[in-house]
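dumping this here before i forget
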Amino acid sequence: MRSRLILFTLCLYLAFALGCNKPPAADNSNDPNATDQNASAGTDSTGNAKESGRQPRERKERKEPRREHLTVPAGTAVTVSLGSALGSKLSQSGQSFNGSVAKDVMVGNAVAIPQGANVSGTVTDAKPLGKFAGGAVLSVRLDSITVNGIEVQVQSEAKTFNQKGKGKRTAVATGGGAALGGIIGGLVGGGKGAAIGLAAGAGAGAGGSALTGNKDIVLPAESAVTFELSQPLELRR
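structure:
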């Protein structure tokens, strides 16, 4: 009995001694390498799974296509079909008018200003016969053109039409006979006559003249008047 007690005491002592000598578990809470390993494994420092910190990439905004710029040089002719009649007696200085581009305006092989584009302008001077010794005067200027839905301001030379007073049967249109032909046609048959007169007057050239009698200057609706740009015109296509 005594020997058994001694043996039990000895076993208990050995078990206690072995338990005390066992090395403690390593604490990796302060080890940066351990933290990196946990992060790469998708777990945090406590061993729990964590959600990825990566955010989905934001979709790149679609870039609008770049609009090309086209320059219409100074001196380019822009022929306009009038939307309403103008005249030395019909119109007043400062009055606005509208119309449309009568034919495509080309820059190289590109259409810079398409036929039918809306335009606006101003009557800069209007004097009927009998108001002053020099006879009737009508001056008009092109102010803007709407291209691709955008109204673009333009700088143009004023177009002046003169007609001498009594005893003279000559009407002079400064800058070309085509518009003058429109006057002749308008006096003959309104808008349709303007188209006929335009064809007839196109050959008259700059400073051309025609017999119109002692009447005020009249530009019927649909008359073609050609303006010349005095400054380059920047357009976005």
